[in-house]
Design brief:
Blueprint lengths: L2 H8 L1 H30 L2 H4 L3 H43 L2 H7 L1 H42 L1 H48 L1 H6 L1 H50 L8 H45 L19 E12 L4 E12 L3 E7 L5 H8 L7 E6 L2 E2 L5 H5 L2 E4 L15 H13 L8 E2 L2 E2 L6 H14 L4 E5 L7 H17 L3 E5 L11 E6 L2 E7 L11
Helix pairs in contact: 2-4, 2-6, 2-10, 4-6, 6-7, 6-10, 7-9, 7-10, 9-10, 13-14
Bound molecules: adenosine-5'-triphosphate.
The site of adenosine-5'-triphosphate (ATP) has 12 residues, from β1 and α11.
Keywords: ATP-binding, Membrane, Nucleotide-binding, Transmembrane, Transmembrane helix, Transport
InterPro entries: AAA+_ATPase (IPR003593), ABC1_TM_dom (IPR011527), ABC1_TM_sf (IPR036640), ABC_transporter-like_ATP-bd (IPR003439), Cyc_pep_transpt_SyrD/YojI (IPR005898), ECF_ABC_transporter_ATP-bd (IPR050095), P-loop_NTPase (IPR027417)
Organism: Pseudomonas coleopterorum
Length: 548
């Protein structure tokens, strides 16, 4: 179902009432202009008869206008909330590769900008409906007054619409271009905040970032939006000009064709009254076009994310002990379009056993993190099979499979709550872990929330380790965990924590460059350019040459 369809379905009744109120408002406006025209031409004797209808009609205009705008404002906010949650659900359900390919900038733009543009559709819609009804109603009233003037007006509106359509497709192209430029711009905004330290330390770098990168991207968005809006202004101006010409023709026609001044006044008044709503229609149509573009962009992003169906069943309580993971011929490849290069990992044959520590070692870029992500089910293998305790993981079982793992990757994210189901024992266990990792004087945990995240990188990583251990999953992955720790804590990690987790029967995968501790591994795997080039088991591991 399209996003529009989804939004409309979510608030069907409210939308129907809001459209109804807008229609009533438009009709009441037409009634008002007819009433004014008749009152203007009425004799003093008849004039009093128009007072009550006038009051009733303006009350109807005001009441229906307030109702339709209030309802549409509500629908707009409702739509925004629905869209943001809808996209967020897709983001959460998307495979990691989908997220990496779509990119942070695109996803942020979809959540922040495209959703707002799409929901603005509802803010502009009452104006569009009301204005359209007023224009149609006024045309009907003109037809009632004079067929000839009606036909000339239809011709003027027709020519206006033709001009509009000629500009419209060009305008859409500019809005689309502005949208893609904006994705890039959001990426730069992200870099501006994430890279604040680097920019502050290097003035010329900051200057170049501002002058060349940011200015260029901002300029692209400005240029495309401005062009689109300029085309729209030209269209609007063209429509307005036609109407003014029309008023001029009717006004000066009297020079050649004698006509009743009161009738001419009536026509001119209807024209003038109609011009505002006509502009309202033209003004709001680009908003509708922008909403269409935004909707298409969100749909394209969602398609790119390729969200997987998430298992709705509750996560089974994890097995206290580890599991045996057997990887049979697993492969994964990255294709870099820019560099026209493929990095291929595997085929990998590997078994990870409960109560064993597997060290994954190798040079930078050899594929250790990629293999860890593949093992954890964050990347789908392109070929090969993974077996858990001898049973192959099925096509639709990857989400369940991932629930076997806890991991601290080197680019880990620390949420400010444990996000586990509320459980008083979690706070106690967390307190014990905090003491063990010397963080109890800095952080406390209450109702699953950390008292602070204002910690050093090494301390934050210790906190991430606590979170991973508290999850109680059977398999734990540490990606260069010890890299930011001081020697004392490295010692604690390798000589106390890992053996303790091993003793609990966990299946442990540890990516490490710390050759001093290689002897602690039950199995050591060395990667080079995506291939396993060396394996050592148990005591032999110590003999392996250090890997730089
Ligand atoms: N998201 C990605 N998209 C495309 N290519 C990637 C991506 N992540 C990694 N790569 C490429 O895959 C290769 C292996 O990267 P990986 O991060 O697995 O190496 P690593 O052994 O963990 O390195 P390090 O020790 O530096 O952390 C590298 O050549 C890298 O350029």
């Amino acid at each position: 179902m399209s996003l529009f369809g989804m939004l409309v379905r979510a608030s069907r009744t409210r939308l129907a009432v809001a459209i109804g109120a807008s229609l009533v408002c438009g009709l009441a406006n037409v009634l008002l202009v007819a009433l004014i025209n008749q009152a203007l031409n009425a004799s003093l004797h008849d004039l009093t008869g128009y007072a009550l209808p006038f009051v009733l009609v303006i009350a109807l205009v005001m009441g229906s206008q307030v109702l339709s705008r209030a309802l549409f404002a509500h629908l707009s906010q409702q739509g925004l909330a629905t869209l943001r949650l809808h996209i967020s659900r897709h983001v959460v359900a998307a495979p990691l590769r989908g997220l990496e390919t779509a990119g942070r900038g695109r996803i942020q733009a979809a959540l922040a900008d495209d959703t707002t543009t799409l929901s603005n559709f509802f803010t502009g819609f009452p104006m569009l409906v009301t204005s359209a009804v007023v224009v149609l109603g006024c045309l009907g009233y003109l037809a009632y007054l004079s067929w000839a003037i009606f036909l000339v007006s239809v011709l003027a509106i027709g020519l206006g619409s033709l001009g509009y359509h000629l500009c419209h497709s060009h305008m859409l192209q500019y809005f689309r271009k502005a949208g893609s430029s904006q994705d890039e711009l959001f990426g730069h905004f992200d870099a501006m905040v994430s890279g604040a330290k680097e920019l502050k330390l290097n003035r010329s770098k900051a200057q170049r970032f501002l002058d060349e990168v940011l200015v260029g991207a901002v300029e692209q968005v400005r240029h495309n939006r401005a062009k689109g809006l300029m085309l729209f202004a030209i269209t609007g101006g063209w429509g307005r000009l036609l109407f003014l010409v029309l008023i001029g023709v009717v006004l000066f026609l009297r020079l050649w064709i004698p006509s009743d001044a009161a009738v001419i006044t009536g026509y001119v008044m209807v024209f003038l009254y109609m011009m505002g709503p006509l502009e309202g229609v033209l003004l709001n149509l680009p908003q509708m076009s922008q909403a269409r573009v935004a909707s298409a962009r969100i749909e394209a992003t969602l398609a790119q994310l390729k969200a997987e169906t998430q298992q709705q069943t509750p996560v089974p309580s994890p097995a206290p002990k580890g599991v045996t993971l057997a990887l049979d011929g697993l492969t994964h490849g990255y294709f870099s379009e820019r560099e026209d290069e493929v990095f291929t990992l595997g085929p990998v044959q590997l078994t990870l056993k409960p109560g064993e520590i597997t060290f994954l070692v190798g040079g930078n870029g050899s594929g250790k993190t990629t293999l860890a992500k593949l093992i954890a089910g964050l990347y789908r293998p392109e070929s090969g099979v993974v077996r858990v305790d001898g049973r192959a993981v099925g096509e639709d079982e990857w989400d369940d499979y991932r629930q076997l793992f806890s991991a601290v990757f080197s680019d880990f994210h620390l949420f400010d709550t444990l996000l586990e189901a509320p459980d008083a024992s979690v706070d106690t266990q967390a307190g014990e872990w905090l003491a063990k990792l010397h963080l109890d004087h800095k952080v406390s945990v209450s109702n699953g929330s950390f008292s602070t995240r204002e910690l050093s990188q090494g301390q934050r990583k210790r906190l991430a380790l606590i979170v991973a251990c508290l999850e109680g999953r059977p398999v734990i992955v540490f990606d260069e965990w010890a890299a930011d720790q001081d020697p004392a804590f490295r010692e604690v990690f390798y000589c106390e924590l890992l053996p303790e987790l091993r003793a609990q029967g966990k299946t442990l995968l540890v990516i490490s460059h710390d050759d001093r501790y290689f002897h602690l591994a039950d199995q050591l795997i060395k990667l080079e350019r995506g291939q396993i080039v060396h394996r050592e088991a148990s005591t032999q591991a110590a003999a392996l040459q250090p890997v730089v």
